Amino acid sequence: MSREERKRQTKEAIVRHAVELFKQKGFDNVTVEEITKQCGIAKGTFFNYFAKKEHILLHLTDAYFARLDDIFGQFSDQEPKEGVLRIFSDLLSLYAKHYEILRFALLETVKAPGETNGAGGNIPLFRQKLADFFVEAEAAGRFCGKWEPELTASVLSDLFVQTLIGRSGTDAFDKAEAYEKLKRQIVAIWEGLAHEKG
């Protein structure tokens, strides 16, 4: 086995054991010492991979957002409002599936936007993917935006992230409820917040 393969396996083992401990005891109740003991590694080895236990959560958030290309790719040729709703639905499903850990990871990402290791780049990356989605829709004639794609993407991505944050304090995540609320908000934004006076 190569040195790179051993490093990859060690990092995976740290993440796997840490996640199990986080699920059992709650993130705040787990120490780096417990993680290293569970992995059978020295504390110094842990710090070769993660500067602190919070970075494990940021690593998990990276893995969540790594799915963006696949999810956006599935809906890139759809009418934009329907495409956005389907993209958000898929992301909510993925979030719900791994909610026990991703809720902590999301909060850590929001708290540490300037961190390295890709940590702070996930939300801006999500926003950029949405902006690109609208640019492509405009170029294909499927969308005629009133505002620049970056602003549209910023509003929608902030709405999505806020929906997740707003439900992160609960023990369970109701994907259907979150989606319905998000859908109503997107429809309100899409149609405008007020009727024009006639």
From TrEMBL:
Keywords on record: DNA-binding
Annotated region of DNA binding: 31-50
DNA-binding listed as a keyword: yes
Keyword Amino-acid biosynthesis appears in the UniProt entry: no
Domain HTH tetR-type: 8-68
Position of the signal peptide: none
Protein name: TetR/AcrR family transcriptional regulator
Species name: Paenibacillus thailandensis
